[in-house]
């Protein structure tokens, strides 16, 4: 009898663990946890911001501190903008797993991302090795909900030419996932809510015959609901109409306008209602910790303590009183593929002829990326990749380069793709390779001069 009791207890624990480990899947335009509709209820999480960039999923002490707060808040998802792919994340990911919390991860870092100012130079094999290594580090965790290939790379009317490079990254991530035989990890894009091109961007990332190049999910960074607004006054109703014919999950990857003191988070009631659930699958409040941009819901006191602010109390209360819609929330089980937007100068400047995967990155897809090089690697300025990668010393130099690009403070604080100077050129790359040639060409002349001056012969 005791043996039977032990077996039943073990079975119960195993089933509980399996339930907690259920990967999130996609069907139609919704997320699913098993057979239940899953809504993202979470916060954006990057303590320190970009001014003090650290990996929040590596330090177990701070993970324990914050996961306790996540549980109290009642969330099921966090978004992290930057991690260190040279570190191990088993302990923190297990703590999140035990708390029933999923992770949406941006695979980029500020200096390894697609630069909106110089997209061609930033799309290179060193960059792909970096994000593939990040994927390797997290693909084995069942509570990885999905990854973002880019964040707010398009942030104005004149940065749409960068979209085709982000779309190439989406394709490359899908190819890598398939080649490594990982589960179907959703790959998405987190978009700035730019009135002039919000629909064009969404259509572009979900159009075309190449399924690998289409996103699986779309995040929208939307701050249009401020204070005690409403579903219609805020423009949320227009967003529901705008995205109503998409067949992928869409959610708010950032929300929480801070133009009012003590944010009431009244939008929670609309986000998790049938007003929006047929199109949107929840959202993430920006952001967890108080940083210079003044969006935090807690203030970090020490490695083991945080102080909960009034925004925290308001958010907790709204989440507690607002349930998810019953049943499937009116989701659509369709497979509509969007029509690619026309290329128009100054309006939309990316066609669907996306760049090929860099030749030198194919070996990573075939054989694996290898070890990650951490947060400090800078891959933004490899403008002449073939020249760089024909020289092993140049490749080493590229991997160890420190950050030298000037980045916009606002885009860094939101975790967006870093901007970089576009002045790097193929002549810079050529100089790296030609320098050794010039050195060796001088040796015969040195030999002649020394022989004439000192009257002896050098053995070369």
From TrEMBL:
Keyword line: Cell wall biogenesis/degradation, Disulfide bond, Glycoprotein, GPI-anchor, Hydrolase, Lipoprotein, Membrane, Signal, Transferase, Transmembrane, Transmembrane helix
Class of this enzyme: transferase
Membrane topology: Lipid-anchor; GPI-anchor
Chief location category: other
Pfam families: Glyco_hydro_72
GO molecular function, one term: hydrolase activity
Residues passing through the membrane, by range: 437-459
Keyword presence, Secreted: no
Localization (cell): Cell envelope; Cell membrane; Membrane
Highest taxon listed in the record's lineage: Eukaryota
Chain intervals for the UniProt region annotation (Disordered): 386-425
Record's keyword annotation contains Ribonucleoprotein: no
Ranges of Low complexity composition bias in the record: 390-406, 415-425
Cellular compartments per GO CC: fungal-type cell wall; plasma membrane; side of membrane
Signal peptide: 1-19
EC numbers on record: 2.4.1.-
InterPro entries: GH, Glucanosyltransferase
Family as reported in the entry's similarity comment: Belongs to the glycosyl hydrolase 72 family.
Function per UniProt: Splits internally a 1,3-beta-glucan molecule and transfers the newly generated reducing end (the donor) to the non-reducing end of another 1,3-beta-glucan molecule (the acceptor) forming a 1,3-beta linkage, resulting in the elongation of 1,3-beta-glucan chains in the cell wall.
Protein name: 1,3-beta-glucanosyltransferase
Organism of derivation: Ascoidea rubescens DSM 1968
């Amino acid at each position: 009898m005791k043996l039977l009791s032990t077996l039943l207890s073990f079975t119960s624990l195993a089933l509980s663990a399996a339930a907690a480990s259920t990967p999130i899947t996609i069907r139609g335009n919704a997320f699913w946890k098993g057979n239940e509709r899953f809504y993202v209820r979470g916060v954006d999480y990057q303590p320190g911001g970009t001014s003090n960039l650290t990996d929040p999923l590596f330090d177990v002490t701070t993970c324990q501190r914050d996961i306790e707060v996540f549980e109290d808040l009642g969330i099921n998802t966090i978004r992290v903008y930057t991690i260190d792919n040279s570190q191990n994340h088993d302990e923190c990911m297990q703590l999140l797993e035990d708390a029933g919390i999923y992770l949406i991860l941006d695979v980029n870092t500020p200096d390894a991302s697609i630069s909106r100012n110089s997209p061609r130079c930033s799309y290179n094999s060193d960059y792909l090795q970096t994000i593939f290594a990040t994927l390797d580090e997290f693909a084995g965790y069942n509570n990885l909900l999905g990854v973002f290939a880019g964040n707010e790379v398009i942030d104005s009317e004149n940065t749409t030419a960068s979209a085709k490079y982000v779309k190439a990254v989406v394709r490359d991530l899908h190819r890598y996932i398939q080649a490594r035989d990982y589960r179907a990890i959703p790959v998405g894009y987190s978009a700035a809510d730019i009135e002039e091109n919000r629909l064009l961007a969404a259509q572009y990332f979900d159009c075309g015959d190449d399924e690998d190049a289409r996103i699986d999910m779309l995040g929208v960074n939307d701050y249009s609901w401020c204070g005690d607004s409403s579903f219609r006054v805020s423009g949320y109703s227009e967003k529901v109409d705008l995205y109503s014919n998409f067949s992928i999950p869409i959610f708010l990857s950032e929300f929480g306008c801070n133009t009012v003191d003590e944010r009431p988070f009244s939008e929670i009631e609309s986000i998790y209602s049938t007003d929006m659930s047929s199109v949107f699958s929840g959202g993430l409040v920006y952001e967890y910790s108080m940083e210079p941009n003044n969006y935090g819901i807690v203030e970090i006191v020490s490695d083991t303590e945080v102080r909960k602010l009034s925004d925290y109390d308001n958010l907790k209360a709204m989440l507690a009183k607002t349930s998810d819609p019953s049943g499937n929330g009116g989701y659509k089980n369709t497979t509509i593929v969007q029509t690619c937007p026309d290329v128009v100068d100054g309006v939309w400047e990316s066609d669907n002829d996306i760049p090929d995967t860099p030749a030198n990155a194919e070996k990573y897809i075939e054989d694996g990326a290898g070890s990650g090089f951490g947060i400090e690697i800078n891959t933004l300025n490899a403008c002449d990749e073939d020249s760089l990668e024909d020289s092993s010393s140049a490749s080493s130099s590229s991997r160890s380069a420190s950050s030298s690009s000037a980045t916009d403070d606002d885009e860094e604080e939101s975790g967006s793709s870093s901007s970089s100077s576009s002045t790097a050129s193929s002549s810079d790359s050529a100089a790296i390779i030609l320098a050794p040639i010039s050195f060796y060409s001088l040796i015969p002349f040195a030999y002649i001069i020394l022989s004439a001056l000192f009257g002896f012969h050098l053995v070369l």
